[in-house]
Specification:
Elements (H helix, E strand, L loop, with lengths): L18 E5 L3 H11 L4 E5 L2 H10 L3 E7 L7 H9 L4 H4 L3 E5 L4 H10 L3 E4 L4 H33 L9 H18 L3 E8 L2 H8 L1 H17 L6 E4 L4 E7 L3 H16 L3 E3 L2 E3 L3 E8 L6 H17 L5 E2 L19 H11 L3 H4 L3 H18 L6 H16 L1
Helix pairs in contact: 2-3, 8-9, 10-14, 14-15
Length: about 400
């Protein structure tokens, strides 16, 4: 690109100046284009495609790219191809205008094939260049606004408006896909149904505004205590559900107890009132309890009912008639805490392991209690609790 004299003339004044990236290895040409555009746009200059990519990736304010074809390191075609392959929607959809020769048909065709939106000839005047820039920027802004509206609509359709958790419809969509994958991989899959205990009493005693506040606090607490790969949803008035892939029965029990304790530990204050909150939980497993989501939800709901009848503020992992109670000890898939312990053991990090043992034993207490109820093997849970106290004291000293 050499002749840019026809790009010079007095520009129109504009109040708002969007960022535009000018990419060319020639300082003269970058300066010429910047001067031609500076009253209507804020030019940012890059000397080649690699530097341009750094700017595009790092500055979300850049709205349009004007680039030459021939440059060292990364040319214009390579730059636009990289942009169109980006996982970032802003970059993937950013308008790119190529600068070509008047009669360079092959370059124009290659530009469009690579994903360029438009081209300008080296002899184009300032009026034509600005017109193209305005048109492409306006179209890009319209597309971004449309995408934002679509994202908002999808979020509204998939999200519970009070707690901002997934709603029942979206949970079913995600959980069914996860369950299908677990079946194909012959992996475990857990569903936990949870219900806030005596929630009607909370509403009647403290009012519906307090009830909504409790729901939000419980939802946040549950969200803070599930794994990133778990899906948490509000599926009813005071009812929540978690789907947990790669989770066997032991892992589900540990998760349930972690959630129960986290909610029980909440200190909720609303308008001067202290509101105690607990939850009851029912657990169902794939493949033990079925391999269809509705069947698992029904089993988890039945066990939630058992947990409530047994006194609330507890979980139930097996129906009364359920005789398949073997515990899978595949600790590699149990939970992040147990995974951490196993990793420490494998690498001989016993010193680092010691502070984790009291918390690990606390997480396993519900498993020990379940074994005592359903197995001839007996574990003295009181002795375990005493050991936890002693270990905590030793670690503190």
């Amino acid at each position: 690109m050499s002749d840019t004299s026809s790009l010079f003339s007095e520009p129109d004044v504009a109040d708002f100046k969007p960022l535009i990236l000018i990419v060319d290895d020639s300082p003269t040409i970058r300066l010429s284009l910047s001067r031609a555009l500076q009253d209507e746009f804020t030019p940012v200059e890059a000397v080649d495609g690699e530097q341009a990519w750094e700017f595009i990736s790092g500055d979300s304010r850049i709205e349009v790219v004007i680039t030459d074809l021939s440059m060292p390191k990364l040319d214009g075609l390579g730059l636009v191809k990289r942009m169109r392959d980006s996982v970032v929607m802003r970059i993937r959809n950013m308008p790119v205008i190529m600068v070509t020769g008047d009669d360079d048909t092959a370059a124009r065709e290659a530009s469009f094939m690579a994903g360029a939106n438009d081209f300008v000839a080296k002899t184009s005047d300032r009026v034509e260049l600005l017109a193209r820039l305005r048109a492409h920027r306006k179209l890009a802004v319209t597309l971004r606004e449309l995408e934002a509206s679509q994202r908002e609509l999808r979020e509204q359709a998939n999200t519970d408006p009070l707690t901002r958790l997934a709603n029942r419809r979206f949970f079913s969509h995600i959980a069914n896909k996860e369950l299908s994958l677990m079946r194909r991989q012959k992996e475990y899959f857990a569903v936990l149904m949870m219900d806030i205990d005596h929630f009607k009493r909370t509403n009647d005693t403290f009012g519906h505004a307090a009830g909504d506040y409790v729901l939000v606090q419980v939802a946040q607490t549950l969200a803070n205590n599930v794994r990133e790969e778990d899906t948490l949803a509000r599926v009813g008035g005071e009812e929540f559900v978690v789907s947990s892939p790669y989770t066997n029965r032991l892992a589900a029990i540990v998760l349930a107890e972690r959630l129960r304790k986290a909610v029980e530990s909440l200190e909720i204050q609303f308008e001067g009132n202290s509101i105690p909150v607990t939850i009851s939980i029912g657990i169902a497993m794939q493949p033990q309890d079925g391999d269809v989501l509705d069947t698992l939800l029904a089993a988890a709901d039945e066990r939630l009912y058992f947990a409530k009848n047994a006194g609330r503020n507890r979980f139930c992992a097996a129906s009364k008639h359920h005789d398949e109670l073997a515990m899978d000890m595949d600790v590699d898939k149990v939970c992040p805490k147990l995974d951490e312990v196993v990793g420490m053991l494998r690498h001989g990090n016993l010193r680092r392991l010691m502070p984790h043992i009291p918390k690990l034993l606390e997480d396993l207490i519900p498993l020990f209690e379940l074994v005592n109820e359903e197995s001839p093997v007996h574990i003295d849970v009181d002795q375990v609790r005493e050991a936890i106290v002693e270990l905590k004291a030793k670690n503190e000293n």
